């Protein structure tokens, strides 16, 4: 006596006989009908398969259908991190300078769309102090910094000093303003002495 197993979800014909059918995704199939939906027609009975929107795919077709990481080009089988309009493995989304993971961390991109942590971006692109030649960037834990510009040159606040006597310059209101002379940064007293030396 032939056993009726149900109606095949693929061909809609009766599935009759013990070894002619199989059950997958809560449906009955003929063994020959339960194949990969991606035209490779790999038989899936007894094989690992992936169900997507009610369709069965063999492992190879499923992996080939996945988005690929913009960094390593391998399929993303787990969580996708999207940034700058591209997909990434969370572990592949890193700073191009230091390699630190930027998953869940603030980041920025340069003009060529390369990804940087905030610190390396500042180190690489921040204006440089004309005295110490170091980048002018926020201190750790800070988001902003002060840059002084004088004579088309940039200065750290602590590097903005009279070139002759070394007094810290600030604003004219404090009486410690900058009095430049011949492209030199000077305080008022040193400027006065230099002007006197020129005229005498």
On the 0 to 100 scale, the average pLDDT is 88
Alpha-beta content class? alpha+beta
From the spread of the alpha carbons, the general shape counts as rod-shaped
Termini Cα gap: 126 Å
Please give the share of residues in helix: 10-25%
Pattern of helices and strands: EEEEEEHEEEEHEEH
> Helix tally?
3
Sequence of strands across the biggest β-sheet: 1-2
Q: Biggest β-sheet, characterized?
A: 2 strands, antiparallel
What amount of the residues lies in strands? Answer: 15-25%
Q: What Rg do the Cα atoms give?
A: 35 Å
**Low-confidence sequence ranges:** none
**Total number of β-strand segments?**
12
Description:
- By secondary structure, this protein is an alpha+beta fold.
- 14% of the residues lie in helices and 20% in strands.
- The chain is built from three helices and twelve strands, in the order E-E-E-E-E-E-H-E-E-E-E-H-E-E-H.
- The protein has helices at 59-65, 118-125, 188-199, and strands at 4-7, 14-16, 21-24, 27-30, 49-52, 55-58, 81-83, 86-88, 107-109, 115-117, 148-150, 153-155.
- The strands form six sheets. A two-stranded antiparallel sheet has the order 1-2.
């Amino acid at each position: 006596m032939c056993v009726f197993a149900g109606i095949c979800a693929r061909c809609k014909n009766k599935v009759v006989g013990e070894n002619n059918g199989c059950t997958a995704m809560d449906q009955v199939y003929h063994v020959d009908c339960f194949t990969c939906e991606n035209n490779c027609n790999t038989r899936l009975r007894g094989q690992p398969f992936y169900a997507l929107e009610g369709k069965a795919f063999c492992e190879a077709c499923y992996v080939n259908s996945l988005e690929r990481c913009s960094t390593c080009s391998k399929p993303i089988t787990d969580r996708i991190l999207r940034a700058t309009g591209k997909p990434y493995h969370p572990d592949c989304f890193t700073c191009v300078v230091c390699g630190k993971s930027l998953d869940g961390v603030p980041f920025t991109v340069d003009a060529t769309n390369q990804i940087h942590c905030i610190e390396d971006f500042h180190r690489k692109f921040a204006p440089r102090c004309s005295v110490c030649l170091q980048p002018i960037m926020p201190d750790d834990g800070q988001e902003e910094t002060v840059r002084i510009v004088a004579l088309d040159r940039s200065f750290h606040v602590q590097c903005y000093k009279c070139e002759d006597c070394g007094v810290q310059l600030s604003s004219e209101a404090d009486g410690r303003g900058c009095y430049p002379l011949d492209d030199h940064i000077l305080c008022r007293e040193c400027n006065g002495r230099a002007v006197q030396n020129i005229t005498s």
